[in-house]
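in:
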């Protein structure tokens, strides 16, 4: 009876487990927290889109995050609970997001309101090293994002619609790293529109 209970517990834990954020983002072990800033670049001028502060658990998942806009207004907070993640918003209901582990390196991530209205859902496919292979939107756009890596770095994202028609291709280049190999400055350029974004990461280690 005890063996059956342990097996059930392991299955439940697996169904709610999520891939490590640090593995997904190719971050080194020992990272304690980080601040991410995203800018749009136009005519050599940078405009801040958002600033996100993240605190990590010891096993590399996001324990808490806070995202603000360029004026410092709160956009979203997240809190990791035992079985789900709560997404808190200043102007709408909170979302409760649950991860269900599937076979073949897949996760189904679904978010609901407290009234059980589904707000979004996506299927994440992973490579064996924990990085993202592709993301299928399963609720809103039904687009699929394909992730490509070069020399163990994210180098390209291709976005296609449900009919496999190309929507955009984004080239990604890391231009600055720290001594641990963390990418501190990343440039993303849309091949279709030529729009450019800059992603800055400031990590803190143990």
């Amino acid at each position: 009876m005890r063996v059956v209970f342990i097996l059930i517990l392991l299955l439940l834990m697996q169904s709610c487990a999520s891939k490590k954020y640090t593995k997904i983002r190719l971050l080194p072990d020992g990272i304690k927290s980080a601040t991410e800033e995203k800018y749009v670049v136009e005519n050599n001028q940078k405009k801040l889109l958002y600033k996100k502060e993240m605190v990590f658990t010891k096993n590399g998942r996001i324990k808490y995050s806070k995202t603000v806009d360029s004026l410092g207004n709160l956009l979203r907070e997240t809190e990791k609970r035992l079985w789900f993640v709560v997404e808190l918003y200043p102007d709408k209901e909170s979302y409760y997001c649950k991860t269900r582990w599937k076979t073949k390196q897949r996760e189904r991530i679904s978010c609901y309101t407290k009234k059980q209205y589904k707000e979004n859902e996506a299927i994440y496919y992973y490579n064996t090293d924990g990085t993202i292979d592709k993301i299928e939107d399963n609720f809103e756009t039904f687009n699929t994002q394909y992730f490509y890596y070069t020399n163990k770095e994210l180098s390209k994202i291709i976005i296609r619609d449900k009919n496999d028609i190309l929507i955009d291709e984004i080239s990604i280049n890391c231009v600055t790293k720290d001594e641990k190999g963390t990418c501190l400055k990343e440039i993303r350029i849309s091949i279709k529109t030529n729009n450019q974004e800059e992603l800055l990461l400031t990590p803190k280690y143990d």
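note: Residues 2-16 have pLDDT under 50 and may be disordered.
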